Amino acid sequence: MCGICAGIGHENQIDDVVCGLKKLEYRGYDSSGIAFLKNGEIQAIKSVGQIKNLEKKIDDEVCSHVVIGHTRWATHGSVCEENAHPHISQNGEFAMVHNGIVENFENLKGNLNCNFKSQTDTEVFVNLVEAESGTPLERLMKASRKVVGSFAVALLHKNTNSIFLAKRKSPLMVAVGKDGVFAGSDISVFAGKFDFCYIFEDDEFAIMEEDGVKFFDLNGNQISKKAVDIRDFDFYDEDLNEDFYMLKEIKEQPAALRKTYFKFFSEGLQFDFEAIKKFKSFHFIACGTAYHSCLLGAQFIQQFCKKDCKVSIASEFRYGSNIYSKNCLYVFVSQSGETADTMACASLVKEKGLKVMCVTNVPYCSLNKLADFVLPTFAGREVAVASTKAYTTQVFTLLIFALFLNDKATRLQDELKRFVLNLENLQFNECLLEEISKFKKIFFIGREQDYVSALEGALKLKEIAYLNCLGMPAGELKHGTLALIDPQTLVIAISTQRALKGKMESNIEEIKARGGKVLLISNFKHNVETDFFVELPDFDEMFMPIVSIIPLQQLALNFALKLGYNPDKPRNLAKSVTVE
Ligand code: F6R
User: Distance, CA 171 to ligand 1 centroid (Å)?
Assistant: First the structure.
């Protein structure tokens, strides 16, 4: 979390940096700020809240050719202007923006004789730089050696017409154009302006100047780096043509699924399925929504390939007593490819000499760099914090993956095509919303693949409408949770598997017997009366997890709007979770 960007060029860079920050706002929006050089002095403008608040504070006449910027997701210290970046060192020599965590900041702080104005680890880092001797780059390198933790930083020095960059664990990239040099936490900041960019490895440093960039290792030796081509990167469709990105992204799902299909079946996506077939088992690891995709991925492989699969939440796997096997492929699913817990588990598996596959939506992300096999998803850029199209494309990609492993994909190609061509965006009935929005206690239930939709549907409602709800296996109700069912409870029952219809009907009866209200979401009729019903289009069962989640995403979105919340920027969350 936290996004940084920096620009140096022949023209004023303020607008470009603010525009870059807007692209990075998904990484946190507690506060934002810029610092720039003006007549040999460092000046800073900061604001609490979204970047639009910062924009209001920047006068039209503010102009600088050397600018750094930051959008914050608070880790150390509360949300306030003092804790907003950039942080300026005690003597005003340096300004720093930082994404990451200085784990030993308390120790470092004790050795610095400074009056700290903020509670942040970054203010310690920038003062550590100031306390060192040598050129600005040497001082940054010396300070970096003392830091334990993660960082992507951009640093201004008041007497130097340059920007200094450093990276360890947090992502950082830089691009050179004819009008200047630009750096940022992700590739989106280069959209429409640059064709190539350089991606930093850990403990690499750089000096950005108006005419180019020079790279260095931790010992100060200049190094050469190869630029990557970003012309194919999906920058398209970033403009908001709906009221909210989440709505836009929900509606883009049919198109994203079509794109996924065509990538596999007519655009010749290169992937070594033969190498994957050699593995005897699979262990899926991820966080949040991506963990839900993993649950389905594992079900698909067990169903179609009859191979053993395990699924773990990354933060649990990381410290668990796992049994490792070289015959197992460790599959990491992540929209961003930057999630700290997921990354840490992938590194752990690599260190044991085992094979890592990743399924990611962002090209050149950190996870891709350490994976042996990379299976991309084609959701396009997902801006809203709550994942929607990234989830359904992950699920579809994992389904196709499982079918390819069992050589079924080509046989089922027509069926897959029919699905993507016929899937429409599903709306959630407004009157129904009116009825169910009075419930404050909501459970989501389902079995097998519908249980995964129950988990994901509940997560959406929690994260953007702040409702206390729970997704659980329908069969588990009677082992405790049934005690909570009363006439004030709504249970959303997802039932898309005909073989389990009778079991779901019994669970619904149990809820009704306790006075609970039931909203059934299904593609077929059940022999039980429910209070509300959402009819799904009827596709083959393997597609139904993708179909059933769309009205649940809509429900969460409409619920959030009804309660007056901005669904794109839920409180306390950020899209790229780079803290543990
Ligand atoms: C929920 C959501 C999060 C992410 C989780 C993992 O809507 O977006 O739960 O799924 O933070 O993120 P990635 O997929 O980037 O690893």
Answer: 17
